[in-house]
Specification:
single chain; rod-shaped; 2 domains; 4 helices; 4-stranded antiparallel sheet; 371 residues; Elongation Factor Tu (Ef-tu), domain 3; 6-stranded antiparallel β-barrel; disordered N terminus
Length: 371
């Protein structure tokens, strides 16, 4: 019985399993793959700097109303492509047309005032010539009167000597005295007339100077009114708002009848001239980066396409410095945060058609080749 039981136990006992070699092989492959991946990342990191904190940028021009007014008509729609100089919208022109008419009327009045001042100046010049001629005539008459006085005085002196010798009559002596006195009176009258003419010349000259000043003032007023007319025309031209450059129009929130203030921004135009990338690298990545290094850009919209680019320039300060409220760690509870430096990257292959499909704000991955 004991022999039989032992035999049965031997028959029912299962043989021990051998250790499988598949696990060791898989483990070895994983170790090799991990080592290869780690070494690949290490050597790649020695010659590359990467970041996914990057976006596509482009020039965006705001459409701003330069004058206040009500919108008359809007000629564009959302996402529409426009060329430089295309009319985007117009404002009501009636108020500005009235201002222009008023400025032109004021200019006409100023020109009329100038014509009147010039006419007065011509009349004053004529009066000056007349008074100068009167003075010259008075001077000539005074010289003649002086001659008459001298002659009458000489006759009187001779008759005075003759009357003492009773060579002439008393009547002849009195006639000589009267002639002398008459000549002196005439000379005095002519001198008074000359003084009056000289005074009149001064008055007329003062009037002429005043008229000349009026002409100068009228000329200045004309220049001012001409500036007012040009300013009114310029403001009237601002009622037609045109595209500053070719590009795509953003969302247009403006409707006909809406009132716009001068300087109010309405919508924007994404210009069609250039695009670039702004990548925010950590400050710890900045050490080996230089301008002119080759860059490969991958856009999330086109993940399998390589955009060729070049590192163009570095920002003069970190992004936090340009924030509305820059961080200030003077309070004492300082927590060191790695800062990011914006870097501008320009596309080099301008013939790449996919660049035109990129839109500002799209996310991209940037790989800078440090070699």
């Amino acid at each position: 019985m004991a022999t039989t039981t032992t035999t049965e136990n031997i028959q029912t006992a299962e043989p021990k399993k051998k250790k499988s070699s598949v696990f060791i092989i898989v483990l070895g492959l994983l170790v090799i793959a991990g080592t290869w991946f780690g070494l690949n990342k290490y050597f790649h990191g020695q010659h590359h700097e990467e970041t996914d904190d990057a976006q596509v940028e482009a020039n965006i021009s705001p459409v701003i109303s330069r004058v206040s007014g009500y919108v008359s008509k809007v000629y564009v729609e959302d996402n529409q492509f426009v060329h430089k100089g295309d009319t985007l919208m117009t404002l009501d022109q009636r108020d500005l047309q009235i201002i222009l008419a008023q400025a032109e009327a004021a200019l006409s009045t100023a020109k009329s005032n100038l014509n009147a001042a010039e006419a007065n100046s011509r009349a004053a010049n004529t009066n000056i010539s007349t008074t100068h001629a009167a003075v010259a005539t008075a001077d000539a008459q005074i010289e003649a009167a002086k001659v008459n006085v001298w002659r009458a005085t000489q006759d009187y002196q001779r008759y005075e000597n003759l009357i003492k010798d009773h060579s002439i009559t008393q009547q002849q002596y009195e006639q000589a005295l009267a002639a002398k006195q008459l000549a002196e009176k005439q000379l005095q009258v002519l001198k008074d007339q000359r003084n009056q003419a000289t005074t009149q010349t001064g008055v007329v000259s003062s009037q002429s100077n005043a008229t000349a000043q009026q002409i100068g003032v009228a000329g200045s007023v004309i220049k001012q009114r001409e500036v007012d007319v040009e300013n009114a025309k310029l403001n009237l031209s601002y009622t037609v708002i045109t595209a500053p450059e070719s590009g795509l129009v953003s969302k247009v929130p403006v409707q006909a009848g809406q009132f716009l203030q001068a300087g109010q921004s309405t919508f924007s135009i994404v210009l069609n001239n250039d695009k670039w990338v702004v990548a925010n690298f950590k400050e710890t990545q900045y050490n080996k980066m230089r301008e002119g290094q080759k860059v490969i850009v991958h856009a999330d919209a086109f993940p399998k396409h390589d955009f060729e680019a070049v590192l163009s320039s570095f920002s003069p300060a970190t992004g936090a410095r340009f924030a509305l409220l820059p961080p200030d760690n003077a309070s004492g509870n300082f927590v060191k945060v790695v800062q990011r430096l914006p870097v501008k990257i320009d596309f080099t292959n301008k013939g790449d058609s996919l660049i035109q499909k990129l839109r500002p704000g799209m996310n991209v991955n940037v790989d800078v080749h440090l070699d």
